[in-house]
Amino acid sequence: MSKILVVFYSFSNTTKRLAEKIAEQTEGDIRELIPEKSYAFNYNTATKEVRNEIERGYCPKLLSGEESVASYDYIFLGTPNWFKSFAPPILSFLRNVDLQEKTIIPFCTHGGGGFGQIEINIAKECPKSTILSGFATMSNFDKRQVTDWIEEIGI
């Protein structure tokens, strides 16, 4: 049986709720990426911080989440859509964990921007991985949408 890991970063717990649903439905293990420095709780301040980090390609130090994924075959990778890309903690994970020959399945939560460039950016960071079709949703997703997507990708 293939081993599944659900890795995510969540700012406001929306992506976390989605990650938990995916882990529940796939019987996968779950791992939260926690940056050393939290983002500001004020949305406007946080967006300024994040935009700057994304533009610089910044990889924040993670307190947890960079443990080996050697025993896993499938890595579901979740993030909020921030300025059409993934959150900087995801970049830290992608650059510091060996994902060669793993199958990566992206998912994101968003406020109307869909995936933006998230899938493309993950593929650029992981040229020796297989990237499956992802799932993008707003905060009002339901369990059936997640089930349909997981069935569609054959996991």
Beta strands, count: 8
Quick one: CATH superfamily? Flavodoxin domain
Number of domains: 1
- Give the second-level CATH assignment, the architecture: 3-Layer(aba) Sandwich
- CATH domain topology: Rossmann fold
Number of helices: 5
Tell me, briefly, the overall form. globular
* H/E element order: EHEEHEEHEHEEH
Q: Which residue ranges are poorly predicted, with pLDDT under 50 across at least 5 consecutive positions?
A: none
The multimeric state of the shown protein is single chain
Helix/strand/pairing category = alpha/beta
Mean pLDDT: 93
Give the helix level as a range of percent: 25-40%
Strand content: 15-25%
Under CATH at level 1, the class stands as: Alpha Beta
Structure description:
The model has no long low-confidence stretch (mean pLDDT 93). The chain has a single domain, classed as Flavodoxin domain (Rossmann fold, 3-Layer(aba) Sandwich). The protein has helices spanning 14-26, 43-56, 88-96, 118-125, 143-153; strands spanning 4-8, 29-32, 34-35, 62-64, 74-80, 103-109, 130-131, 135-137. The chain is built from five helices and eight strands. The longest helix is centred in the N-terminal third of the chain and has 14 residues, at 43-56. Helix 1 (14-26) packs across helix 5. The protein has 155 residues and is α/β, with parallel strands linked by helices. Strands 1, 2, 5, 6, 7 and 8 form a six-stranded parallel sheet that branches. Strands 3-4 form a two-stranded antiparallel ribbon.
Question: TL;DR of this structure?
Answer:
GO terms for molecular function: FMN binding; oxidoreductase activity, acting on NAD(P)H. The chain is α/β, with parallel strands linked by helices and 155 residues long.
